[in-house]
Amino acid sequence: MARIVIDGERCKSCSLCVEACPRKLIVISDTLNSKGYRPAKFVDEDGKCIGCAFCAISCPDIAIEVYR
User: Fold this and answer.
1) Domain locations in the chain?
2) Would 29 disulfide with which of 3, 41, 51, 65, CB 3.0-4.6 Å?
């Protein structure tokens, strides 16, 4: 089972990871980080993440780590 970890303090809400995820497992959070951005949030209750790393590759802030 794969998973990702998003560093909410580095994320600037660009939404590139949201668009890149083929399974649509990343959403923009309702809460703000310390810089005033709404960071991306990984939502995968059913274990559907395949670890493709498209999210991490698309992140300009290097805020996503992928674990397989």
Assistant:
1) 3-67
2) 41
**Which positions ≥6 away from 58 have C-beta within 8 Å?**
16, 17, 19, 20
The C-alpha atoms of residue 29 and residue 44 are separated, in whole angstroms, by: 14
The pLDDT tens digits of the residues spanning 1-31 come to 899 999 999 999 999 999 999 999 999 999 9
* Tokens 């590139």 found at: 16
For the question of whether the overall pTM of this predicted structure is more than 0.85, the answer is: yes
| Overall fold of domain 3-67 | Alpha-Beta Plaits (3.30.70)
Close Cβ partners of 49 (under 8 Å, ≥ 6 residues apart): 1, 2, 3, 4, 23, 25, 42
